[in-house]
Write a structure and sequence with these properties.
This protein is of the alpha+beta class. It has helices at residues 19-32, 39-49, 57-68, 74-86, 128-140, 157-165, and strands at 90-93, 98-101, 112-116, 122-125, 150-154. The chain is 43% helix and 13% strand. The strands form 2 sheets. It has a 3-stranded mixed sheet, with no helix packed on it. The chain has a two-stranded antiparallel sheet with strand order 1-2. A hairpin with a 4-residue loop joins β1 (90-93) and β2. The longest helix has 14 residues, at 19-32. The radius of gyration is 17 Å and the shape is globular. The N and C termini lie far apart (49 Å). Mean pLDDT is 91; it is low at 1-8. The structure holds zinc ion (3 copies). One zinc ion is lined by residues 104, 109, 111, 124, 126.
């Protein structure tokens, strides 16, 4: 599997894709990597992109079965998710042990995930200045962190409001 290296992380305002535009960006990216956008891969991507929280290979397999009216083994889904991560179409959310579709498949960032402990909803933000600072702090400690992992656990706005109203 090809893994992208991140020597330099882009600093720009980029587009965050949704729906059809996300599917097209994902397909373009994967085919540029020399991989085929098969019907199976497209359906797995659709299933993954339908979640607003990190999804496991099992969650994606279930969503796939519901959409496609046929079953797929979680193992096959897992292999495809692995390919997606390598091609920047998906990101692993380590603290949730699960995956999210990457809404900017054409550019590389140290994606930051804000994960709600109460409902699981996960927000994806990019702040290259922040991740650069982390890389610099690591370097000052004699540590090389080419890809810092930044995941923040807390409470989303909706859950926060619900809690304060109750
Ligand atoms: Zn970008
Ligand atoms: Zn990102
Ligand atoms: Zn929440």
């Amino acid at each position: 599997m090809k893994i992208i290296s991140f020597p330099q992380v882009a600093q720009h305002d980029h587009q965050l894709h949704e729906g059809e535009s996300l599917k097209k960006a994902a397909r373009d990216r994967l085919t540029r990597q020399g991989e085929q956008w098969t019907g199976m891969r497209a359906a797995v991507f659709d299933a993954l992109a339908s979640f607003d929280k990190p999804a496991s290979a099992y969650d994606v397999a279930e969503a796939f079965s519901r959409n496609q009216d046929r079953r797929v083994a979680a193992n096959s889904v897992y292999r495809i998710l692995d390919l997606f991560v390598g091609a920047n179409l998906a990101r692993r959310v380590e603290s949730a042990n699960a995956y999210m579709a990457n809404r900017h498949p054409e550019c590389l960032h140290d994606c930051i995930f804000l994960i709600c402990d109460s409902c699981g909803q996960t927000v994806h933000i990019d702040d290259d200045a922040l991740s650069k600072d982390i890389r610099k702090a690591a370097a000052n400690a004699g540590f090389s962190a080419p890809r810092p992992l930044i995941e923040v656990r807390g409470t989303c706005g909706e859950c926060d409001r619900a809690l304060s109203e109750s």
